[in-house]
Amino acid sequence: MLPQTSVVQADICPNGYEEPITISTSPNTQSIHEDHAAPPLSKNQQKKLKRKQEWEASRDARKAWKKGKLKEKRERKRATKAEEATQTTPDGPPPKKPPPKRAIQLPITIVMDCDFDNLMSDNERISLGSQLTRAYSDNKNAHLRAHLTIASFGGKLRERFNTVLSKHH
């Protein structure tokens, strides 16, 4: 006797295509054969797929929750600012931050020699440029300042400062 074949239902695979499942029935055995060559998903892969779908489905809820938290934070901040504004001393508004102390110039000179820029790669030149600007800025804002001298500032390093950094040095 020949096995009878019938299409029972169409399953939707993770890739979105419908694939019919055929069932062959013979007198002694019943077996299910899938028409596609891809192996079925393992339990672990099915769990991961389910978690991913749940994560995507709850995106709007997460977004709304984050937005609500941000609103609450802004309201708390606004309330504390309003509270601080209402608290005044008998003489008038609350005292402001004291002015910064005058910087002290130390008798130290730091010399940075940039003569080796022809031996540096582009990444090293970029790093050197950021180190120079950071050192200048930190020294300028420090309470105890040193004399800062940059020697042999030329070549590709100067070209970088004049073009890429738009003369912001």
From TrEMBL:
GO molecular function terms listed in the Swiss-Prot or TrEMBL record: methyltransferase activity; tRNA binding
UniProt record, GO biological process: tRNA N1-guanine methylation
One cellular component term from this protein's GO annotations in UniProt: nucleus
Bias type Basic residues, positions: 64-79
Bias (Polar residues) ranges: 22-31
Name this polypeptide is given: tRNA (guanine(9)-N1)-methyltransferase
Region entry Disordered, spans: 17-102
PANTHER family with a match to the protein in the record: TRNA (GUANINE-9-) METHYLTRANSFERASE (PTHR13563), TRNA METHYLTRANSFERASE 10 HOMOLOG A (PTHR13563:SF13)
All residue ranges annotated as the SAM-dependent MTase TRM10-type domain in the record: 94-169
Top-level taxon of origin: Eukaryota
Record keyword Transmembrane helix present: no
UniProt entry keywords in alphabetical sequence: Methyltransferase, S-adenosyl-L-methionine, Transferase
Annotated Basic and acidic residues bias: 52-63
Xref: Gene3D superfamilies: 3.40.1280.30
EC assignment: 2.1.1.221
Reaction(s) this enzyme catalyzes, per UniProt: guanosine(9) in tRNA + S-adenosyl-L-methionine = N(1)-methylguanosine(9) in tRNA + S-adenosyl-L-homocysteine + H(+)
Signal peptide positions on this chain: none
EC class (word): transferase
